[in-house]
Amino acid sequence: AYDASRELFFVTESGYNQLMSLSLDGEAEVVVSLPILANNQQPVPSGITIDPTTNDVLVALFSGFVYDYVDTQLGFMPGDAKVMRFDPDTGELSEEITGLTTAIDVAAAPNGDLFVVEMTTTWAPNPMPFEFDLTDPTLPPDPGGYARFSGRVTLYPADNSEPIVIA
């Protein structure tokens, strides 16, 4: 059962991606484990907010590393990230927004409209090779496998009308 004297937060630890609560006494408790994404990706929690119309917890899940995709490795899979909704009263975890690529944050307006930030929405034209030396200052900058200037902020209206890309 959810206790209103606890604050909810998320933590990624040792490959376990969980929503946890923390009591005012500093006692941590696992509330729910987040499900593996499509293509066997880790559901990396990257943003969290409370829906003020329901008091549900919304968690943005960044699509984690794809270890085996057509004999290669990818940093993320376009379309596999999502926002999950957790009802602290019932313990129900459900998908709120799907089809995202690199969801890094979620925010809620007082009326329940949701805003989702994605770092990128597609693969980079030339993915960064695994042997790229990130510490070598003589090498040109590399986007790290993310397509530059393809991120976005999208408004998902509470009335379920069409999403609007606002930036």
Brief synopsis:
The protein has strands spanning 7-13, 16-22, 28-33, 43-50, 57-63, 81-86, 93-100, 103-108, 114-118, 152-156, 164-165.
Word description of this protein:
0% of the residues lie in helices and 40% in strands. By secondary structure, it is an all-beta fold. The strands form three sheets. It has a four-stranded antiparallel β-sheet with strand order 4-5-6-7, with no helix packed on it. A four-stranded antiparallel β-sheet has the order 8-9-10-11, with no helix packed on it. Strands 1-2-3 form a three-stranded antiparallel β-sheet, with no helix packed on it. A hairpin with a 5-residue loop joins strand 8 (103-108) and strand 9. The termini are far apart.
- Total helices: the number is 0
Tell me the structural class.
mainly beta
The quaternary organization reads as single chain
Terminal residue distance: 39 Å
Query: If you average the pLDDT, what whole number results?
Result: 82
Choose one word for the global shape.
globular
Biggest β-sheet, characterized? 4 strands, antiparallel
SSE succession: EEEEEEEEEEE
Helix content: under 10%
How is the largest sheet built, in terms of strand order?
Answer: 4-5-6-7
Q: In what range is the share of β-strand residues?
A: 35-45%
Number of DSSP E strands: 11
Rg, nearest Å: 17 Å
Low-confidence stretches: none
Topology:
Layout: E1 7-13, E2 16-22, E3 28-33, E4 43-50, E5 57-63, E6 81-86, E7 93-100, E8 103-108, E9 114-118, E10 152-156, E11 164-165
Antiparallel strand pairs: 1-2, 2-3, 4-5, 5-6, 6-7, 8-9, 9-10, 10-11
